[in-house]
Design brief:
Elements: H1 3-15, E1 22-31, H2 33-43, E2 46-47, H3 53-61, E3 69-74, E4 82-84, E5 109-112, E6 123-126, E7 132-137, E8 145-153, H4 155-165, E9 168-169, H5 173-176, H6 179-185, E10 193-199, E11 202-204, E12 228-231, E13 237-240, E14 246-253, E15 255-262, H7 264-274, E16 277-278, H8 284-294, E17 301-309, E18 314-317, E19 321-322, E20 339-344, E21 349-353, E22 358-363
Parallel strand pairs: 7-10, 17-22
Antiparallel strand pairs: 1-14, 2-14, 3-11, 3-12, 4-10, 5-6, 5-10, 7-8, 7-9, 12-13, 15-22, 16-22, 17-18, 17-20, 18-19, 20-21
Length: about 375
């Protein structure tokens, strides 16, 4: 069989193959939130962390029961960082476009103020319960941005509307600084507009900083000490009193960061002897999950399970998959056959010599 045909077959197999780097488990026993977290940490990894809508679907498929705890709990004091509604967009303080004197640390959602100079680049923190027009972002399609001005909604209602009809509330400087965005918002100069920036007053039990939230917009109307999150019958989330007994969702992690310095071959042997393999990344969702591990490494780079073959002149995963997804940094490529892939703490992939000594990430 010719090599070109072999490559084509492997590419087809690769692109229809999906693996998950963690699994959800539904536990029917009724426990308080703290008891549920202890159970999950003893038997699995932790209470369920949810990073996007795909996770929501996977978690729902693990059980038909609603009204169950997940691993989200209200913060008690301390730092409450700003997050973008789109899970993969990172907030950078150095790029913030706050009005003078903002944020004032009293409100938790953000709007773009009306401006007499047709400039929507200034932000103002606002109470999330206030009603405003808002801007949605559409990941697909020719038009990317939609100002919703036919009705005013509070921030959570606006987020739900955008996720139902588009992708999400507009998120990040790349979107806000785009020409299309500026042209569209100039038409609504005299209106305050919600954007997808909010202050993080909830945190995940396992410490991950995923910004994805799927709140029921009406779930915060009741008063009370409702500091733990649960799923609802409408497939959204609601806060509730943490001591109430409920079933719950755990997750079991399938990747682990090894903080030992090894060459690529040594890392591969270690993972196969003690776990499963060096980790493979086949889509952007897995990329974000592995990236969280890379940020905790001792070395600047961590080995991934991808290497270069001179025979076929291509990169491949040691899990016998070709590269359908990649996140290469823009840099000059290396020469020679002794090349493997490492992830930097920023999540970008780099070619490195296999003889370098780095931390690495194993699949369990």
């Amino acid at each position: 069989m010719q090599w070109s045909l072999v490559v084509l077959i492997l590419m087809v197999q690769c692109c229809i193959f999906t693996c998950h780097l963690y699994e959800y488990h539904f536990i029917q026993d009724n426990m308080s939130w703290e008891e549920a977290r202890s159970y999950c940490r003893e038997h699995f990894t932790d209470l369920a962390t949810v990073s996007n809508m795909r996770d929501m679907e996977r978690m729902r498929n693990s059980s038909q029961t609603e009204g169950a705890w997940i691993g989200l709990q209200a913060k008690e004091g301390g730092n409450k960082p700003w997050r973008w509604s789109l899970p993969w967009v990172e907030y950078k303080e150095s790029e913030a476009l706050w009005e003078n004197g903002e944020p004032n640390d009293r409100e938790n959602c953000v709007k773009m103020d009306e401006n007499d100079e047709n400039d929507y680049r200034k932000w103002d923190d606002e109470s999330c319960t206030e009603d405003n027009h808002f801007i949605c972002y559409n990941e697909t399609g020719q038009q990317k941005y939609f100002v919703i001005d036919e009705h005013e909604l509070n921030w959570l209602q606006a987020q739900s509307y955008c996720r139902e009809h588009h992708t999400d509330l507009v998120s990040g400087l790349e979107q806000i600084n785009s020409t299309e965005f500026k042209n569209i918002t100039k038409q609504f100069n005299n209106q305050d507009l919600w954007i997808g920036l909010f202050r993080e007053v909830w945190s995940w039990s396992d410490g991950k900083n995923f910004s994805f939230r799927h709140w029921d917009p009406d779930s915060f109307e009741d008063e009370g000490d409702k500091d733990c999150a649960m799923t609802k019958t409408n497939e959204k989330w609601s806060p509730d009193i943490c001591t109430k007994p409920k079933p719950f969702y755990c997750y079991d992690d399938k990747v682990i960061l090894i903080k030992e310095n090894k060459t690529w071959e040594e890392a591969l042997d270690y993972c196969r002897a003690k776990h499963r393999d060096l980790v493979s990344i086949t889509d952007s969702h897995q990329q974000r999950w592995v990236e969280k591990r890379a940020k905790m490494a001792v070395t600047e780079f961590v080995w991934l399970g991808m290497r270069y073959t001179c025979t076929l002149d291509l990169w491949f995963w040691v899990s016998d998959r070709l590269v359908c997804y990649d996140n290469w940094a823009p840099e000059d490529k290396m020469k020679g056959c002794d090349r493997a892939t490492a992830m930097k703490r920023d999540g970008k992939w780099y070619e490195r010599r296999e003889g370098e000594f780095l931390n690495f990430i194993c699949a369990l």
